[in-house]
Amino acid sequence: MSVVVQNSRGWVLDARSLIDQGCERCVRYKDNYKSHVKCCFKKQCFQILQSHYSVNASAVLENGNEGVVQKTVKPSKKRKRKHSELNNGEIDLQVSHEKIRSVIMEGTKSLVDSAQSLGYLNGVIDTVKGPVPAEECRLAALCEMAKELPLVDNEEQEESVQSLVAADGSTSHVDLFSRVTENKGDSAAVATLMGEDYVIPRHTAFLLSDFTQMQPLVYYGKKYDLIVMDPPWENKSVKRSRRYSFLPSSQLKRLPIPLLASSNCLVVTWVTNRPSHLRFVRDELYPHWGVDFVAEWFWVKVTTSGQFVFPLDSPHKKPYEVLVLGRYRSSTDSSLSSSETSKLPVPEDQRLLFIPLTLFMGTPHCAEVLKSYIGAEAKCLELFARNLQPGWTSWGNEVLKFQHTNYFTVTPADDPADKEDTHAHTSNSAKEQSLS
Residues near 317 by Cβ (< 8 Å), separated by ≥ 6? Predict the structure, then answer.
């Protein structure tokens, strides 16, 4: 279980545990040879030991006599502005922050106290020495190059999906850019794709493509009960750092949500703390798609000791982000009864907080939290994904980024079938002895 604590304020999530659940049983495919391995996400990626104003991606965790120390590069000196020189956007952010500050503070304290009473968020105990994997990723550049490939047209819809592993155990046939790729197996797979090894969770489907090349996802033909997205929002920090390419807000309206959403689909959008982005999602984007706003939740980022990763009142980086939740209403919903259209309602006034232990991996997966509002058998889709979840369909131009084996510890494992055979043999021997 990735849910450590649940109370009236929300949940405490163990993000690493959730990732590992999808890789408990793993098969490695290499040169048409199959072997069994165990894949665990590296612990050092979640050892956020202290609050930071900035974190260097190549930070090194060292286990010395004084305990674990995280080395970071000091932020470059910048010209300080006078406090009175706030622009309109900063004033807007300050006003918005003051409205929810007490909600964040009180809710986080309640959740952290509950977690610490269970021995969680009490600081790192099992520390790991070693570098955090580099964030270098060529996938977005490859997707840009793949724009030159021919698109799948309407007459070739049946060819818009492919299996990750061929009958002969090969993965060399996989066309990642113009086909949805499926791992239908009951085990995760370590497969070589484009010359790199990636861990693909069980029962997973994904499409690696640019924003303009989403047709195969539509042709895939599935309707989803939950759609989660974390768009690359445009902001000054992203422009300066060039960490990833951003997407203008107006372009988000081109996402084919009505073609992907089932009736009463829950749509969840992660939004930066910029008030103009929040207003855009609530007042423009959701109405454009036919999505009714229902609630706002918060994701609070804390250290392993339960402290905010950034000062709560920092004028720039906040330790929380906002989730905007809505329900998709198709044109046929008007014929449904009021009881059917209000099925699995999301509470509007509940103050919910997510607390993962990571800075650089993006948003935590929230299917386990949302299952009460979407149903146990819901079909789930993540847009702008940077990693995969078992049972989900995922799309993005970096959809495999954090599935690279650099982020995992891969060790040999026994074949589960051998254990079953041994257990069956032992049971049969015991029966024979009892009969004799």
Answer: 53, 310
Q: Which domains does the chain show, CATH number per domain?
A: 3-67+88-412 (3.40.50.150)
Instruction: In whole angstroms, give the CA distance from residue 228 to residue 386.
Output: 12
Nearest to 347 by CA among 322, 373, 318: 373
- The structure tokens listed for 311 are 């000062």
Which has more pLDDT, 65 or 426?
A: 426
Q: Which of 28-42, 128-142, 273-287, 366-380 has the lowest mean pLDDT?
A: 128-142
CB-CB contact of 326 with 278 (8 Å): no
The rounded Cα 391 to chain-centroid distance in angstroms is: 13
In sequence order, which residues have a C-beta less than 8 Å from that of residue 156 and are 6 or more positions away? none
Q: Which among 228, 323, 313 is positioned nearest to 272, based on CA atoms?
A: 323
For the purposes of burial, counting CB atoms within 10 Å of the CB of 273, is it exposed (0-12), middle (13-18) or buried (19 or more)? middle
The tokens for 271 are 């939004």
CB 299 within 8 A of CB 319: no
- pLDDT over 50 at 340, yes or no: no
Helices (H), 199-309: 215-219, 236-241, 257-260, 275-280, 286-289
Residues 342/327, Cβ–Cβ less than 8 Å:
no
Cα distances from 409 to residues 44, 130, 403, in angstroms, run: 11, 12, 12
Task: Enumerate residues 6+ apart whose C-beta is below 8 A from 8.
Answer: 350
Show the beta-strand stretches assigned E in 290-431.
291-300, 320-328, 353-354, 380-383, 392-396, 408-412
Asked if 157 and 221 count as a contact pair (C-beta separation under 8 A), the reply is yes
Per-residue tokens: 160: 């818009």
**Pairwise CA distance, residues 52 & 383, whole Å:** 29
d(CA 200, CA 434) in angstroms, rounded, equals 45
Average pLDDT value over all residues in the chain: 78
Q: Closest Cα partner for 317 from 20, 38, 55, 31?
A: 55
CA 165 and chain centroid, separation: 24
Residues 6+ apart with CB under 8 A from 404: 133, 196, 197, 198, 199
User: Which residues lie closer than 8 Å to 236 by C-beta, 6 or more apart?
Assistant: none
One-letter amino acid for residue 248 of the chain:
P
Is residue 188 classed as helix, strand or coil in its secondary structure?
Answer: strand
Asked if 31 and 172 touch (Cβ cutoff 8 Å), the reply is no
